[in-house]
Write a structure and sequence with these properties.
The structure is a single chain. Helices cover 62% and strands 11% of the residues. The longest helix has 50 residues. A six-stranded mixed sheet has the order 6-9-10-3-11-12, with helices on both faces. Helix 2 packs parallel to helix 6 and helix 2 packs antiparallel against helix 12. It has 593 residues and is α/β, with parallel strands linked by helices.
Length: 593
Amino acid sequence: MAVNSYKQDELQRDVPKRVTLARLYRYLFAYKKEIFAVLFIMGVTVAVALLNPLIIERAVNVHVAGRDVKGLLKLAAAAIVLNGIWLAGVKARMVIMARVSNQIVLNIREELYVHIQSLGLRFFDSRPTGKILARVIGDVNSLKEIMSDSVTTLIPDAVTVAAVVIIMMLKSPWLALSALGALPILGAGMYVVMIRGHKRWQAVRQKTSNINAYVHENFSGIRVVQSFSAQQESQDAFETVLAEHQKAFVRAVSMADALGPVIEISRGFGSFLLYFIGIRALHMGSGDVGTFLAFATYLNMFWVPLRNLSNMYNRIINNISSAERIFDILDTEPELADRSDAYEMPPIEGRVEFDHVSFAYPDEPEREVISDICFDIKPGETIALVGPTGAGKTTIINLISRFYDAVSGEVRIDGHPVKAVTLHSLRSQMGVMTQENFLFSGTVRENISYGKLNATQEEIVWAAKAVGAHDFIMKLEKGYDTQLQGESSLSVGQRQLLAFARTLVSQPQILILDEATSSIDTHTEQMVQKGIAALLAGRTSFVIAHRLSTIKKADRIFVVDEKQILEEGSHEELLAKKGHYYNLYQAQFKNLM
């Protein structure tokens, strides 16, 4: 399995920018009323802005030239009213679009989060958690600007530029063409930035993701860092990652900033042509001062939106790389999904069958992990799986929970093929415990009820008592309402008991313990034996463990190695055979006899 790390940039599909933008803008269509309201307001504000140069022209050519003070005052009052409307409209459209863009970001983040939860274990195993967080948090946040600015900046500025060109052409084609003569320079500059800028901003996002991955990994393992006094080594590695990000960012910004001088050069050249042609070539006189001022104002109105559009283009180039990363995950198909004809698994008794089951990882199909395995487990049996690391024990239980699908053969529960039922109805009737015993931030009650979100207080207390956790819980400061923060608030054994209670309250018919006691010492294990016994009672159980106490009590023990189940039987039967289990027992447990 190919695994990405913080030292590597993630692979990403190359998708045309227009496709990504079109897909991103579809989220705006869900807010048609708000968008139409903003567009109407923008139409009013753009119209007012376009009227201002004409007001100036009339004021100079008519009222000032004719010494009409009264008319000038009326025109000024009208201009004040119109620009008051413009100011109110700008404020209103900003407020509306802020609400819409924030809601869209919320929707995208929720969609991304829900989709990530549907992805298989391979997705999470193949990349650091920090890189997933970077997409859910940083990349989604960066979309807010592009959503808001696309409506409040792109549309009005584009309309303004087009309207200015039309008005200028209508008033004086020669002056218009002279003012716009610098556009080829601008077009060439933008083309260069367009080609190179996007790739550089993609690199920045990749390096940002690497930083997130490193920080998450380092702080998650801070106990190891501090215990080995490796803070300096950690800092050096962090500085290396930061330096790579800084280098990528400087390259991207240097390209983005190059667009500003290109615009200013184009603007200056256009202004020169306007004045040169207007004054020298067309011999405009004093009677055309108002028209000339109007043209100068329109020219400014032409270049200011262009500058805004160029700045927005830089933001789009930056943020579209975030959208690409988000859609890259959204387009990742879950390795496991309900079939179109999947049905709800009815309440199960707990019979488990493997019918000639083989499995290999998709990226290594030639290397089977298990091959042609068959067994039939009766409801209520406890099965222990033993064998060397990598023998396929965890693969077997992952196939039961359908975290993976068999390459060939069939896994059945109570006669139902696991591929034929919905994942939720299958997994909701199972309880899985690993050696991690992860507890969430929250109260003891909330952690136990995570196994059954609608569990009553009586059910929570019953589960805690059944596994032997009730007594220590009641000694905590606030009992079941005690807040848990991090791993240091409880001992290893106490966390183990809470995890047992969380599993028991869900009342699973099939229980899987994947080395659930491997991280605790023998004394602590003795403390949680009551909890283990309560979990195993009356339900089909699969136990991967190296502890003698758990293995001896199993109804059957499967010795897994060489892709097969080499031996099976009770503890006494397998010892009597003096085969693989006997040798394993002698090597691992003789000191406990």
